[in-house]
Specification:
Blueprint (H helix, E strand, L loop, with lengths): L35 H5 L14 E8 L5 E7 L1 H5 L3 E5 L34 E2 L5 E7 L2 H8 L3 E6 L14 E2 L10 E3 L2 H7 L2 E9 L11 E7 L2 E6 L4 H12 L6 E4 L15 H13 L2 E5 L2 H7 L6 E9 L5 E13 L20 E4 L2 E5 L12 H19 L3 H7 L17 H12 L11 E3 L2 E12 L9 E5 L4 E4 L9 H13 L6 E4 L16 H25 L14 E4 L2 E4 L7 E2 H8 L3 E5 L5 H21 L4 E12 L5 E11 L6 H20 L31 E5 L22 H13 L15
Parallel strand pairs: 1-13, 11-12, 15-16, 15-17, 21-22, 28-29
Antiparallel strand pairs: 1-5, 2-4, 2-6, 3-5, 7-17, 8-16, 9-14, 10-11, 10-13, 14-15, 18-19, 19-27, 20-21, 20-26, 23-24, 24-25, 27-28
This protein binds dioxothiomolybdenum(VI) ion (MOS).
Keywords: Molybdenum, Oxidoreductase
Organism: Streptomyces lycii
Protein name: Xanthine dehydrogenase family protein molybdopterin-binding subunit
Length: 776
């Protein structure tokens, strides 16, 4: 009964057809990670693993008040400690140029993470703000000395209690991240007259980033040139922000992140650890490494805001929605921070004549919160998808049927078409594979010994972003290909996916393609975020590969000895390492033969301009295209989650025992890594559903559980087999039909768990996490 449906299906075809010859599509296959062996054997290096002669080690000292000023500093004991090289505070640190004020209206101001001018001010903006860096010959010496640094403060009143700050919340300005409030018809009026209604309050707690690799930086100055290894999912932003802070040209800064041990948005901005490592290296003239402790990550890197949300639904007795209200309050920091546009997906989910979505944010003196996997939808979907389940119960209607009845043909708010959307197909496939028809709607109707068994569903929804990206593709006379781009490998198999795309575009085997990434010396890549990296890079890869093929054909067509002599590009195809006339796959010539005979060692295709003006033009074109697309379509990845839980009737402990997610994510590039990515989202969602919660002392604003000992994330034994299916139909509006699937997996998960728990127990939990005390 707990077997995942996927495990009953025939095994995927092995990766050795097509991909090994360049004859058939590599895209879509479950190709093994091209870097798998290097990763699992420890051969790849992470940001804190780069050796350097005379490497010094840094560690942070954190403020212990929520708001105020430093009145006295005593670094004497720390400076005298064994192995200490320097103790930097606002009294002696070299000055950095402060970040521009953080604004939700300007994405680039979110790059610094906060507006604090670290070690350039005596002001404290949150409990945990870094106020000193200790640099020593060893990590242990730095950490021991850090405990000897003493600060005295004058405190000023601080807002640290989210619950108490609700009334001070202000509407969010419309921005790229938060689309702003919206209304259609008279949502509240329709609620008053609807035959069946639910009107509920849901809450979700603050959550923190817990990537396997805590944030780490290694920085080396050589005069005014700077090399930084950084656990970043945003290399270009990091380089530009460092250039601004340290007053050196970006061209003199090289930021590298060959591999990143997990990044879920927490490594998308430039946080104190990175800045202060670079500052420490400049101040000491040494190469400095700073691998943050887990506690320092919690204190200096934003996480997910808590939310209080209201969802009100009205429907006719047949289940047809007449109104949908989704409003509420999240948090932001006085020193900046993004927010969670938790109500934004509710504009696009269900057909309804009346709709009201709104969002306010309260400003607190806490570490500014930041992007965390599906910011907005991850927690907004908990509220709206729980409410849909509550409405189904009120109506006495199956929750899948209720969703299908209200599936919109066009965007409910603006009337735009969806670029593609087949939630009906996803639910139908999921219901069949999960055995949904066997569900008895009655709560507490299914038991397994002392366990109450429940089944729940919820919809996943996420709108992937796109970013500008440029690449270089070099085809060499031995038939091998090198793709270079400063994109990021945060653990998802990004270079494997791009290898497959290159292989198909040029008609070469995957094994002929080498990918180099994670280095700002390469052409500028996108942020690894917003579920946008793969599609953003793919668009550039396709263009560059077209260039390469054109250049190769140019060599052949002017060569009377070539079977491609005088052939036109549009009549030529690529495959099995060759160009050939359309319809004659055994004709034509191999790339190697063409290049070798022409005496050309390699042909390069690349996108993007080399001049500053050219780059600005490219950015402008990109933005124009993005805005045009937004006016034309709603582009979203969607999915249907099916969840089974067993709740211990004695202890109230909830175990997730079966999961099936069916997704509509456009074209899937790699069947193996895509499933893995979607599973990862579901696992993170199960953590949010059952255990994750950052505990902030409301009196002091201090995070009280800054580490994995007390902040509970799922371990392997907590996770059942997770079945993943996808519809695998290309989106007609994107290059290759890709949408992006990094974040959609987590959305809807907490609601599916809570809905299953209600089915198991009859208890409706509207406050996450769903800990046993809430069920007893
Ligand atoms: Mo994601 S929150 O854009 O890494």
């Amino acid at each position: 009964m707990t077997q995942a449906p996927e495990t009953r299906r025939p095994r995927q075809r092995p990766a050795d057809d097509g991909t090994q010859t360049g004859a058939g599509p590599a895209v879509g296959r479950p190709v093994d990670r091209v870097d798998g062996a290097a990763k699992t054997s420890g051969a790849v290096r992470y940001a804190a693993e780069h050796p350097h002669p005379r490497l010094a080690h840094g560690t942070l000292v954190h403020a212990t008040i929520a708001r105020g000023r430093i009145t006295a500093v005593d670094t004497g004991a720390a400076e005298a400690a064994d192995g200490v090289i320097a103790v930097l505070t606002h009294l002696n640190a070299p000055r950095m140029t402060p970040p521009r004020p953080v604004s939700m209206l300007d994405l680039s101001t979110l790059v610094p993470g906060t507006s604090v001018n670290y070690l350039g001010t005596d002001e404290v903006a949150w409990n945990g703000q870094p106020v000193a860096v200790v640099i020593a010959e060893t990590l242990e010496a730095a950490q021991a000395a850090a405990r000897l640094v003493e600060f005295r403060y004058r405190e000023t009143p601080a807002v640290t209690d989210f619950a108490a700050a609700q009334d001070s919340a202000e509407p969010l300005p419309k921005s790229f991240i938060a689309p702003g409030d919206a209304r259609k018809g008279d949502a509240e009026g329709a609620l008053a007259t609807a035959p069946v209604t639910v009107d509920r309050r849901y809450t979700t707690p603050a959550q923190n980033h817990n990537a396997i690799e805590p944030h780490a930086t290694t920085a080396v100055w050589d005069g005014d040139r700077l090399t930084v290894h950084d656990s970043s999912q945003s290399l270009d932003w990091t380089r530009r922000h460092l250039a601004r802070c340290f007053g050196v040209p970006p061209s003199g800064i090289r930021v590298l992140a060959e591999h990143v041990g997990g990044g879920f948005g927490g490594k998308g901005s430039v946080w104190a650890g990175t800045l202060l490592t670079v500052l420490a290296a400049r101040a000491t003239g040494r190469a400095v490494r700073m691998a943050l402790t887990r506690e320092s990550v919690y204190r200096t890197v934003g996480g997910r805001t808590p939310t209080v949300q209201r969802v009100a639904l009205g429907a006719g007795r047949d289940g047809t929605l007449t109104t949908l209200v989704h409003t509420g309050v999240s948090r932001t920091g006085r020193a900046g921070g993004t927010t969670e546009p938790f109500s934004s997906q509710s504009r696009h989910l269900y057909a309804t004549p009346n709709l009201l979505v709104g969002h306010k944010a309260a400003t607190l003196d806490v570490v500014p919160n930041t992007f965390m996997r599906a910011p907005g939808e991850a927690v907004g979907s908990f509220a709206v998808e729980s409410a849909m389940d509550e409405l189904a119960v009120e109506l006495g209607m199956d929750p899948v049927e209720l969703r299908m009845r209200n599936e919109p043909d066009r965007d409910p708010l603006g009337g735009k078409p969806f670029s593609r959307r087949d939630l009906r197909g996803a639910y139908a496939l999921g219901a069949e594979r999960f055995g949904w028809a066997r569900r008895d709607a009655e709560p507490r109707s299914m038991r397994d010994g002392r366990f109450l068994v429940g089944w729940g569903v919820a919809t996943a929804f996420h709108m992937p972003a796109r970013f500008p990206a440029d690449v270089s593709v070099r085809l060499r006379s031995d038939g091998s290909v090198l793709l270079r781009c400063a994109f990021h490998e945060v653990g998802v198999g990004a270079s494997t996916a791009q290898s497959q795309i290159v292989a198909d575009a040029l008609g070469v085997p995957v094994s002929a393609v080498t990918v180099e990434h994670g280095d700002t010396d390469f052409r500028t890549g996108p942020m690894a975020g917003g579920s946008g990296q793969t599609a953003s890079v793919a668009a550039a890869v396709l263009a560059a590969c077209e260039d390469v093929k054109r250049s190769v054909l140019r060599l052949a067509r002017r060569d009377a000895a070539s079977p491609l002599h005088r052939h036109r590009f549009r009549d030529v195809r690529a495959g099995r390492g060759r160009l050939f006339p359309a319809g004659a796959p055994d004709g034509g010539e191999t790339y190697a033969a063409i290049l070798t005979r022409a005496g050309v060692p390699e042909v390069e295709g690349r996108t993007g301009a080399d001049s500053r003006a050219g780059r600005a033009l490219g950015q402008a074109r990109f933005m124009t295209g993005m805005l045009r697309d937004r006016r034309r379509w709603v582009r979203a990845a969607t999915g249907a989650h099916f969840c089974e839980v067993r709740v211990d009737s004695d202890t109230g402990e909830t175990r997730v025992t079966r999961w099936l997610g069916v997704f509509d994510v456009g074209r899937v590039i790699n069947a193996k890594t895509a499933r893995s990515q979607l599973r990862g989202g579901i696992i993170m969602g199960i953590g949010a559903a059952l255990s994750e919660e950052t505990l902030v002392d409301p009196r002091t604003g201090r995070v009280m559980n800054p580490g994995l000992g007390e902040y509970q994330i799922p371990v392997h034994a907590d996770i059942p087999p997770i079945g993943i299916e996808y519809l695998d139909e290309p989106d007609p509006t994107t290059p290759l039909g890709l949408l992006g699937l990094g974040e959609v997996g987590i959305t809807g998960v907490a609601a599916a768990v809570a809905n299953a728990v209600h089915h198991a127990t009859g208890v409706r939990v509207r406050d996450l996490p769903l800990t046993p005390d809430r069920l007893l």
